[in-house]
From TrEMBL:
Its EC number is 1.17.4.1. Residues 877-897 are annotated as: Disordered. Signal peptide: none annotated. It comes from the Bacteria. This is Vitamin B12-dependent ribonucleotide reductase. Keywords: Cobalamin, Cobalt, Disulfide bond, DNA synthesis, Nucleotide-binding, Oxidoreductase. Residues 44-134 form the Ribonucleotide reductase class II vitamin B12-dependent N-terminal domain. Its cofactor is adenosylcob(III)alamin. It is an enzyme of class 1 (oxidoreductase). Residues 733-837 form the TSCPD domain.
Length: 948
């Protein structure tokens, strides 16, 4: 713990003030933290996902030997400054950390944060040690900008404001563009803008906020955030009592229908595709700001009034439950809108005298004043798990103090995209400390994510983090003064501190681990209230839970933010290229803690490596299954498990939580409505949902779409023998015509050979994939055999086409086929191609499958069927002479089936790929991104779709 003492360092030439006495956490006097690290040189070479060409190369970069290849690659490509190939280019992690920490230390000295030179040196060394050892990380803008010639923007999250004037709306467009260009995201509430049901002063009708969203959306789609690193991240919020709320709710759902129709017609509708720009409102997350009044009306089935923006009078009454159902229906269709619970947010607001909280950043974790910003930093929780499986509370407290001190110092030197944002941020000094690796910590300590014990640990850690942060903020207020807006909001701020402390008192512990953490949290809150009463607080906001996308990868975290583990098996990049599939390293530790012997652990780990889940793992007791539940896969955590975890931590956060509640494809509209309702009841500030496969090209569900079977004969009471006519295989002749197609899907190359009967009926398909490894090649061989045998037994090609078209998994993306510009998977491409080559136009038209020439003919108003040659429908039914079945005869391809199946055993990730099928492709490297909070992160290069 640090102390305050009289210091000799003057602030801005003023009289000497108190300064912080710093104490060491990880470092030793007289030893530089870098000297205790084993460093090594590596080569970072990044290839183009389309053609394999090199698009980034820097050799001889220097990193600690314990940093993973992926973490080193991401830091080298994302954060090292200077032109590649020049002497100015950074080549060592030491240089990067020195660049950033040097600015923090110098600014801290200049502004009187430290009691003396020794304290400044301790601060400097402790920061460097913690960053080099991946104990925590600042958000990306710090690494991008601090210590460079660029504006020293340190904030990742911004909230803007817009009024009901054209000048304000155009200024909003401009401010968003500047923020996007700087690599950050912003949010705004449009509820001040008059609705399309209200009149203008000139007598005309207002356009309404949804109309103005089009211009902002087009701007965001044009400006790549950070120059070229990712698409702009933005949030648009509308209050539930706005007269245009129904149009706002349904906006993105209607556009999603357009995307499906255009994609099925063959247009390029993927992220970054050239045709996606024709669809609107795709660059923002939409959220409805609901009030307690509205939610109570939903519960009671009452009417709810929509109010004019200028006068506040009710201009229309609607059924609250019906409107709530429309929100859930739209979210069911396209994952938007999310909900923000207005009264809960403002009940925990520390500065209400300055203004209400109306909006959030794009990922919904930063909720504070309009025209403000927040800089983030996240702690790697797994670094505090000791060998005896206890949590290192003392070091966690000290590190939190260090981080809050550094984050507050950054506001003193930071630049901001607009003067209004700069003024507000300097006056209120909003910080966003958070953490990552909670899911890994819980698993490693034998806690199920969806359990009382798991929630108790998470709640205790969050309470301790925020309690220490505000206690340190009160200490800083005694050294360098409270935030400028504190005097005006003192009573409200202290009221919120008491609410946090009361929530901590109500936290019920379950085990030894959370009890010790909670005990320290109680002590910290007690000290926080005392110091706050005396000094006030340096920061209006201290904590939140961000998605930790890129910085989570930088810290080699297994899980991001508050998320559980994604899956039990992952891919790990190897030095020199390539990757290998590994079982999460926290699993053996958890098994040992749960009492399993080494032989049992090895058997269970081997089973997980093969199957990707723990169900029926040898020797694993069923009561321990829940410890290994993940966000996806065989035992996916139930949606309410995610909501309950958010509720366990929300009372201990200044801000909110970036997290999406995942629901299975089978979830109903009522399921989503129930999640939204429970989120309100449990005291969340914001909530977003995502139903699997709800976006772009959703395949037909199993229920209600299958063809009806012929009615079966009903057996009489007595035993009756029914003869069944079994299909007979029609083998291919030894010599048959075939066509070989070379194709590329998402950068993956392959070859398809389709063989026909002499009368042109398709009877055999063989697939070969290049550059994908033996596992995928074996699986494709086995799949080819299965499809070929099915065709030869009389399964119609159109049946396969209807089942496999729109199937989504990796690799996916652009193809080199002019008839099929985008494919959701290799299977999607193959059966689209087979349909175009072998099915008549009428059947393909019913499936929405057309060639490029046919689409062009449709656009010209011509009949595409006229382009088709006459097709003999009988010839398409496999009509080669029937051969007698020889029981012991088998083709060479059939003989290879067991080997192919054995080779396919390593594809354990395939079982959960469908859960991330709707994630976008990375704009930088083309890899499928994965969820990180309510945003997405690319594990290949570290790019994110939101805050990091």
């Amino acid at each position: 713990m640090t102390e305050t003492a009289s210091g000799s360092v003057a602030r801005g030439g003023k009289r000497p003030r108190k300064g912080l006495k710093m104490k060491r956490i990880f470092t030793k006097p007289g030893v530089h933290p870098y000297d205790e690290i084993q460093w090594e040189r590596r080569d970072v070479v990044m290839t183009n996902w389309r053609d394999g060409s090199v698009n980034f190369e820097q050799r001889g970069v220097e990193f600690p030997e314990f940093w993973s290849v992926n973490a080193a690659n991401i830091v080298t490509t994302k954060y090292f400054r200077g032109a590649v190939g020049t002497p100015q280019r950074e080549w060592s992690l030491k240089q990067l950390i020195d660049r950033v920490v040097g600015v923090y230390t110098r600014t801290g000295i200049e502004h009187g944060y430290f009691a003396g030179d020794e304290d400044a040196e301790i601060f400097d060394h402790e920061l460097k040690h913690a960053l080099a050892h991946q104990v925590f990380a600042f958000n990306s803008p710090v690494w991008f900008n601090v210590g460079t010639q660029s504006p020293q923007q340190v904030s990742a999250c911004f909230i803007l404001s817009v009024d009901d004037t054209m000048e304000s709306i155009l200024e909003w467009y401009k401010e968003e563009g500047v923020i996007f260009k700087g690599g950050s995201g912003s949010g705004v509430n449009l509820s001040r803008i008059r609705s399309s049901k209200e009149l203008l002063s000139s007598g005309g009708t207002a356009s309404g906020p949804v109309s103005f969203m089009r211009g902002a959306d087009a701007s965001a789609g044009t400006i790549k955030s950070g120059g070229a690193t990712r698409r702009a991240a933005k949030m648009v919020v509308l209050d539930v009592d706005h007269p245009d709320i129904e149009e706002f709710i349904e906006t993105k759902a209607r556009e999603e229908d357009k995307i499906r129709a255009l994609r099925d017609a063959g247009f390029d509708m993927d992220l970054g595709g050239k045709d996606i720009v024709s669809v609107q409102y795709q660059n923002a997350n939409n959220s409805v700001r609901v009030s307690d009044e509205f939610m109570r009306a939903v519960e009671k089935g009452d009417k709810f009034g929509l109010r004019a923006r200028l006068t506040g009078e009710v201009i229309e009454e609607i059924d609250a439950k019906d409107l709530f159902h429309k929100m859930a229906k739209a979210a069911w269709e396209c994952a938007d809108p999310g909900l923000q619970y207005d009264d809960t947010i403002n009940d925990w607001h520390t500065t209400p005298e300055t203004g209400r909280i109306t909006a959030s950043n794009p990922c919904s974790e930063y909720v504070h004043l309009d025209n403000s910003s927040c800089n983030l930093a996240s702690i790697n929780l797994l670094k505090f798990l000791k060998e005896d499986n206890s949590f290192n509370v003392a070091d966690f407290v000290k590190l939190t103090e260090l981080i809050i001190t550094a984050m507050d110092i950054s506001i003193s030197f930071a630049d901001f995209p607009t003067e209004k944002i700069g003024e507000t941020t300097r006056a209120y000094r909003q910080l966003g400390i958070g953490y990552a690796n909670l899911g890994a910590l819980l698993m490693a300590t034998g806690h199920a994510y969806d359990s009382d014990g798991g929630r108790a640990v998470a709640g205790a850690i969050t309470s301790l983090m925020t309690g220490v942060s505000y206690r340190r903020s009160a200490e800083l207020a005694g050294v360098v003064g409270a935030y400028d807006g504190y005097a005006r909001n003192a009573e409200a701020h202290k009221r919120v501190m008491r609410k946090h402390a009361a929530a901590n008192d109500n936290l019920r512990t379950v085990g030894t681990m959370d009890a010790k953490i909670h005990s320290e949290a109680s002590r910290q809150w007690s000290e926080c209230l005392k110091l706050g009463e005396k000094n006030g607080y340096r920061n209006a906001q201290a904590s939140l839970l961000a998605p930790t996308g890129t910085i989570g990868l930088m810290m080699d975290c297994d899980t991001t933010g508050i998320e559980p583990d994604l899956a039990l098996v992952k891919f790990k990049k190897l030095v020199g290229g390539g990757s290998m599939q590994i079982v999460n390293q926290t699993i053996p530790r958890a098994l040992k803690l749960l009492g399993y012997q080494q032989e049992q652990i090895e058997a269970i780990v081997e089973y997980i490596a093969e199957h990707g889940h723990v169900v029926d793992a040898p020797g694993l007791r069923q009561e321990h299954y829940e410890v290994f539940d993940c966000a996806m896969g065989e035992r996916a955590i139930a949606p309410m498990g995610h909501v309950r975890m958010m509720a366990a931590t929300q009372p201990f956060l200044s801000g909110a939580i970036s997290k999406t509640v995942n629901l299975p494809e089978s979830a109903t509209i009522d399921d989503i409505a129930q999640v939204y309702l429970e989120g309100w009841k449990l005291g969340l500030k914001a909530l977003a949902v995502y139903r699997d496969n709800c976006k772009v090209g959703q395949p037909l569900s199993a229920g209600g779409t299958a063809k009806k079977e012929e009615p079966q004969e009903v057996a009489e009471p007595e035993v009756k023998v029914i003869e069944v006519n079994r299909p007979t295989r029609r083998r291919m002749p030894n010599q048959r015509p075939s066509t070989t197609t070379r194709f590329t899907v998402g950068g993956a190359k392959g070859y398809m050979t389709a063989s026909s009967y002499p009368d042109d009926g398709l009877g055999e398909v063989f697939l070969k994939m290049s550059k994908q490894g033996s596992t995928l090649a074996g699986v494709m061989d086995a799949f080819s055999v299965a499809i070929s045998i099915g065709l030869q037994y009389g399964v119609p090609l159109e049946t396969y086409v209807s089942k496999f078209v729109n199937m989504r998994f990796e690799p996916a993306g652009m193809t080199d086929d002019p008839d099929i510009r985008m494919a959701a998977s290799v299977m999607d491409y193959i059966f689209r191609r087979l349909a175009l080559d072998y099915l008549p136009y009428e059947e393909r038209a019913a499936l929405g499958l057309f060639s490029a020439a046919e689409r062009a003919a449709q656009q010209r108003g011509e009949d595409p069927a006229a382009l088709q040659e006459a097709v003999d429908r009988e010839a398409l039914a496999q009509s080669a002479p029937i051969e007698e079945k020889k029981p012991k005869e088998a083709s060479a391809a059939e003989a290879e089936q067991p080997a192919a199946i054995a080779a396919g055993r390593e594809l354990t990730l395939e079982s959960h790929q469908r859960f991330t099928a709707d994630a976008p492709l990375c704009m930088t490297c083309g890899t499928k991104m994965r969820p990180a909070g309510s945003c997405y992160v690319c594990e290949g290069c570290g790019s994110t779709s939101g805050c990091s």
